């Protein structure tokens, strides 16, 4: 759709209908990540050849699905065919959480409902900046083949147990599940995510969230 600073925005299901819009968005995100390895290898080789420092590129992608306003936006003299609405804004907020949770892709619950065959893990219940209601967010790891694989199947159950213990304020059990998840990562780059939960547990043990805590994390950044 457009460039916005260092961001590229894209949308599916308009102007032509796309029954697989959510899956196509997710697969596109996965394919972009797959290109980053070879791209950074080329950038590193060019840096060495030209004698300057190598700075790898990293991307984060937010994917959300839902009703939006679509069409020519602007004035008679200057306009763009684009999309507007809360679901567009949420997609942007989800992208911003890639840094918070140290993952490459964050998708919303509406998107997950359309792509249950893909390999995903729940990240958190979170109030994103500018919103009053919590949303359930997920990271996307791979396609249907990955979801059927033993590595994902082994990790996903233990990961959900971690979230259950965390939300139940059973910090000791949550720590054990973090350790177990680290052992089951098997190629999944999720070490930073489990560091985040370990740090939060340390904070909550020192400053308990209270018996009425609903497990929601309130994001302080976009």
What is the SS-derived class? alpha/beta
Distance between the termini: 21 Å
Mean residue pLDDT: 95
Unreliable spans: none
Helix fraction by DSSP (H/I, runs of at least 4): 40-55%
Strand percentage: 15-25%
Query: How would you write the strand order of the largest sheet?
Result: 3-6-8-7-9
Output the radius of gyration: 19 Å
**Silhouette:** globular
How many strands in all? 9
Pattern of helices and strands: EEHEEEHEHEEHHHHE
Report the oligomer: single chain
Largest sheet: 5 strands, mixed
How many distinct helices?
7
How would you describe this structure to a colleague?
The protein is of the alpha/beta class. The chain contains seven helices and nine strands; from the N terminus they run ββαβββαβαββααααβ. The strands form three sheets. It has a five-stranded mixed sheet with strand order 3-6-8-7-9. A two-stranded antiparallel sheet has the order 1-2. It has a two-stranded antiparallel sheet with strand order 4-5. β7 and β8 (135-142) form a beta hairpin. The longest helix has 30 residues, at 21-50. It is globular. The model has no long low-confidence stretch (mean pLDDT 95).
How are the elements arranged and paired?
Elements: E1 2-4, E2 7-9, H1 21-50, E3 61-63, E4 69-74, E5 79-84, H2 86-101, E6 105-108, H3 109-114, E7 119-127, E8 135-142, H4 144-148, H5 150-167, H6 171-184, H7 191-206, E9 216-218
Parallel strand pairs: 3-6, 7-9
Antiparallel strand pairs: 1-2, 4-5, 6-8, 7-8
Helix pairs in contact: 5-6, 6-7
């Amino acid at each position: 759709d457009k460039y916005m600073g260092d961001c590229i925005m894209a949308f599916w299901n308009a102007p032509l209908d796309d029954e697989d819009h959510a899956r196509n968005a997710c697969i596109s995100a996965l394919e972009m990540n797959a290109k980053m390895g070879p791209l950074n290898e080329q950038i590193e080789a060019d840096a060495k050849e030209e004698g300057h420092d190598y700075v790898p590129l990293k991307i984060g992608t937010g994917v959300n699905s839902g009703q939006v306003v679509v069409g020519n936006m602007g004035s008679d003299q200057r306009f763009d065919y684009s999309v507007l609405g809360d679901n567009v804004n949420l997609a942007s907020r989800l992208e911003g959480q890639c840094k918070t949770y140290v993952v490459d892709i964050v998708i919303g619950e509406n998107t997950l409902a359309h792509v249950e065959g893909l390999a995903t893990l729940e990240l958190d219940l979170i109030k994103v900046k500018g919103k009053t209601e919590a949303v359930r967010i997920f990271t996307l790891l791979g396609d249907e083949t990955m979801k059927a694989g033993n590595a994902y199947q082994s990790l996903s159950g233990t990961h959900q147990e971690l979230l259950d213990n965390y939300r139940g304020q059973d910090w000791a059990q949550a720590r054990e599940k973090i350790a177990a998840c680290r052992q089951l990562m098997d190629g999944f780059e999720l070490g930073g995510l489990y560091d985040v939960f370990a740090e939060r547990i340390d904070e909550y043990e020192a400053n308990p969230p209270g018996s009425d805590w609903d497990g929601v994390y309130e994001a302080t950044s976009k």
